[in-house]
Predict the structure of FAD-dependent oxidoreductase.
Amino acid sequence: MDYDVLILGGGIIGCAVAYEISKYNLNIAVIEKDYDIADDVALINTAMIYNGVESEDTLTAKLERMGNKMMDTISAKFNIPFKRCGSLILAQTDEEVDIIQGIYNRAIDRGTKDVLILDPEYIYEMEPNLNVDIKKALYSKNTGVICPFDLALSYGEVAFDNGVKFKLEEEVIDIQELTKGFKVITNKNKLTCKMVINTTPSENYSIGNEKEVNENKKKPIMNGNDIDNNKGVSKYILLDNNEKTKYSHALFMINSKGERTYTLPTMEGDTVAAISIRENVSYDEVVKRVSKITSVVDDMNVKMFLDWPFFENPMVIDDSSIDEGLIQIKGKHYGQVTMTPAIASIVCESVVSNMKCKLKKDFNDKRRENYKFRDLCDEERKRVIELDEKYGRIICGCQKVTEGEIVDAIRRPLGARTVEGVKRRTGAAFGNCQGAHCLNKVVSILARETSKKMTEITKDSKDSNILLCRIKEFNSM
Ligand SMILES: Cc1cc2nc3c(=O)[nH]c(=O)nc-3n(C[C@H](O)[C@H](O)[C@H](O)COP(=O)(O)OP(=O)(O)OC[C@H]3O[C@@H](n4cnc5c(N)ncnc54)[C@H](O)[C@@H]3O)c2cc1C
């Protein structure tokens, strides 16, 4: 057998599972079709860590609560920022008061203790910038925010340092069952393994084929990474760091159709305002709806306007074929980052009991250190520059990202190969100018460090080249 375990898909869940099982004496590989791991994790480097209160589905709520509880230990271990900011679901009308009362009762029935219904005087004390009329709010103190890409990368890097092989730019075409184990066919290889953990959509594979299973059972598809199953669209407005729209909690409003309007404090100190709705609406409509929480949205303060499908298909860990060696993680959900540590830990338990493997004695649970120049004091900056003068050259002025950080992001385990990869790892080009001043420098450093031509450097995926061709034959670019 080529491997003990093959993990299909290098998203945050694939990386987290790889990390958990790399603690054991197993030969493991992750197969990812993209240039980078966790490519889809977020558009903005802040994800909400839910605590299950908002979820109608009981299993999802359980996984969210479990993941939420594990987040302190994980973020401390990987040294990544995680803030338990707490959340308030606001009610402005009697109908909305009934909705939050229903959510509160459901949470109490599920045994959740950290929720409270608050009167307006407490709400305005907690959020002095809130200047819309509120009748009641449901407070959950354990909700938090985290950098999802840092989390996914940490899982991936530590797994890599503990011997997991990452096969990037390799697409799984099929999984076939052998008398013992499996054959995984990719566009580059045919690999055999004892066990498969599949986190990719599985409609076209010979085994674990969701479409076939569902047709045979004459039941509708319950979940699966099927884009048609998503429930709507999320529209995000990233607001500049502005005192008037600064809130310390995540603020939500939920209407009777289950549509949400919310604001989130980002890890960088900005505010994200967003709506998750059933039908597509214009930017003006988004601003109008968001204004129910942030009474003022000044266009001058809008840094980014983005939209993304809103998924609410419950996550399922399907280990019904564990005896044959197959685990499938199905579903696509807006709280997937929150559930990741819980899912990885459950999957790891199944793998360990199935493979009867032992803990490695030399497992290294530390992520290699990296410096964030903008977070260092002057004394620390001086010391880092003395170690490597590249930390003294600012490439992105808005975010204060140095050449040293970009080079480290490229040279680290599972290093960046694309502009998006550098952006996500360092924060370069995420500032007010959105890369107008530094994008060309990032492309040039990437080309130098990866021994490629500048015209070969891509944004994030195949054929997304930043520069199409040379327009003049200079000796150098
Ligand atoms: C804008 C946005 C905001 C979000 N906000 C939050 C939030 O606030 N809180 C929260 O908890 N969650 C949030 N999420 C959810 C979460 O980030 C994503 O759902 C999560 O990243 C999905 O992780 P995954 O590993 O399961 O799936 P994916 O990232 O989809 O992983 C699957 C991987 O498999 C790869 N793959 C697919 N097919 C193949 C193949 N045939 N061969 C090889 N590889 C393949 C894909 O390239 C992908 O990398 C948000 C997501 C987005 C996009």
About this structure: The chain has three domains: 1-86+146-230+314-368, 91-141+231-310, 373-456. Residues 91-141+231-310 form a domain with the D-Amino Acid Oxidase; Chain A, domain 2 fold (CATH 3.30.9.10). Confidence is low (pLDDT under 50) at residues 216-229.
